[in-house]
């Protein structure tokens, strides 16, 4: 797939009737917000909670690798598996060969925002 077709990358979300798009360089959360897909993000998308937990079930190899901070936050999420990422941190780095990524948004995301010290 060429870079000219990056806007045509389909983001298929389990349980959603419509298909969304995701551009190279965009996070799952950015794409969700831009297209009206409900994806919790209690911390505002700064990797300080686990409410934007998603499971990338196809195309995961095309996303940025998880950082240690992201993995620490995922420790607070339920039902975490190898396909788990935070939507605010999972940035598409290259287009998948088939032009498609698939993900699930768990219904049970936990708000684990931590308040700063007083």
Describe this structure in words.
It is a single chain. With 118 residues, the chain is α+β, with helices and mostly antiparallel strands. The protein has one domain (3-104): Ubiquitin-like (UB roll), CATH 3.10.20.30. 13% of the residues lie in helices and 17% in strands. The chain is built from 2 helices and 5 strands, in the order ββαβαββ. The chain has helices at residues 28-35, 68-74, and strands at 10-13, 20-21, 53-58, 84-86, 100-104. The protein has a 5-stranded mixed β-sheet. Strand 1 (10-13) and strand 2 (20-21) form a beta hairpin. The radius of gyration is 14 Å and the shape is globular. The termini are far apart.
Question: Which helices and strands, and how do they pair?
Answer:
Layout lengths: L9 E4 L6 E2 L6 H8 L17 E6 L9 H7 L9 E3 L13 E5 L14
Parallel strand pairs: 1-5
Antiparallel strand pairs: 1-2, 3-4, 3-5
Rg for CA atoms: 14 Å
Category from helices, strands and their pairing: alpha+beta
**Portion in beta strands:** 15-25%
Reported by name, the CATH topology is: Ubiquitin-like (UB roll)
The count of β-strands is 5
Keywords:
118 residues, alpha+beta, Ubiquitin-like (UB roll), 5-stranded mixed sheet, globular, disordered N terminus
């Amino acid at each position: 797939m060429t870079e000219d077709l990056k806007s045509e990358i389909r983001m298929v979300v389990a349980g959603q009737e419509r298909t969304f798009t995701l551009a190279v360089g965009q996070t799952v959360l950015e794409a969700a917000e831009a297209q009206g897909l409900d994806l919790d993000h209690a911390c505002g998308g700064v990797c300080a909670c686990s409410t934007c937990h998603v499971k990338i079930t196809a195309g995961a190899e095309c996303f940025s690798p998880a950082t240690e901070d992201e993995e620490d936050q995922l420790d607070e999420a339920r039902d975490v598996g190898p396909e788990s990422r935070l939507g605010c941190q999972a940035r598409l780095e290259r287009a998948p060969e088939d032009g498609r990524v698939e993900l699930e948004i768990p219904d049970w995301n936990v708000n684990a925002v931590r308040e700063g010290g007083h």
